[in-house]
Amino acid sequence: IGDTFREIFTDIRTYRELLLELARRDIRIRYKQAVMGFGWAIFMPILIVASGVLVRVAMGQMSGSGVGTGDVAGIAGKGIAWAFFVGTITFATTTLTTNHNLISKVYFPREVLPLSSLLAQCFDTAIGLLALAVLLPFLGVTLEWTLVWAPVLLFMLFLATAAATLFLSCANLFFRDVKYIVQVLL
Fold first, then answer.
1. What is the pTM of this model?
2. Which of 11, 68, 120, 173 has the greatest number of beta carbons closer than 10 A?
3. pLDDT 10s digits, 135-151
4. Which runs of consecutive H residues, i.e. helices, occur in the chain?
């Protein structure tokens, strides 16, 4: 098993230019004819955060407690992480089946296609995190020492999403129902 993983990582490192170019292609395609352009990268996490805040406010009113800015910041962080996971899984599950013409013509490691969707979603998430970092000081949220864990948690989220992406895109090759099951579950 160790040799297999070493070979996969060597192939990905060898084809890193292709990986980055496919990620750029995904970003360009995603925003090329969109009216809002990069605004979607900010709008979708805001929509997820707003729905989470709405549920939290409703639950807080029912229990008689309020919702503070710290709660909103926590919901925002979780919402952006969830948007990253959902966006990556949604786009990457079908990458191997939708790029069958490229796969049949040229040799390259097949892992590059789902991982390029992962990197493209990293771009969207970076825009969402930047918007969150700009917005939180205006809400009166102060930085705490627990924020030191954020890079570690983001890296763990990246690895878990990469594993799920590779597994689901491979499963979708054999069972075309996987993309529908994934959409329902997400």
1. 0.85
2. 120
3. 778 777 777 787 788 88
4. 2-14, 16-31, 39-63, 69-92, 95-98, 100-105, 112-135, 150-174, 178-185
